[in-house]
Specification:
Elements: H1 3-20, E1 23-32, E2 35-43, E3 49-57, H2 71-87, E4 95-103, E5 108-112
Parallel strand pairs: 3-4
Antiparallel strand pairs: 1-2, 2-3, 4-5
């Protein structure tokens, strides 16, 4: 499986997990200039907009997937999220950042709510 296929598989499993957990998917792979948000969803229970970074790992990968979401990546995600919010209803919406870790081939999904 190529790196791109691993990423697409992880994002597909993450989106399925979110839908089953009561989220509505608003966008996938949303781009703002150079920055991308893997999944943007709305938690149906609270109405919170959730910006999700998906990190997928295969056997032999080093460390926890969430460890790859360092301060620099968080900064880029915040910038992209701010752009999305300004284009889609303003900054007054409740919002948060989650990370979803996917481990293959087991297809284990770990949803870290309010990751940063």
């Amino acid at each position: 499986m190529t790196t791109a296929e691993v990423g697409r598989t992880g994002e597909r499993l993450a989106a399925r997990h979110l839908r089953r957990s009561g989220y509505r998917i608003l966008a996938k792979n949303w781009r703002s200039y150079r920055h991308e948000i893997d999944i943007i969803a709305r938690e149906r229970r609270t109405g919170t907009v959730v910006f999700v970074e998906v990190k997928t790992r295969t056997p032999g990968s080093y460390g926890r997937p969430a460890d790859a979401v360092d301060r620099n990546k968080q900064r880029f995600l915040r910038l992209a999220a701010e752009s999305w919010l300004m284009q889609n209803g303003g900054m007054e919406q409740p919002a948060r950042f989650d990370v979803i870790e996917v481990l293959l081939p087991e297809k284990t999904v770990n949803h870290i709510v309010n990751a940063f």
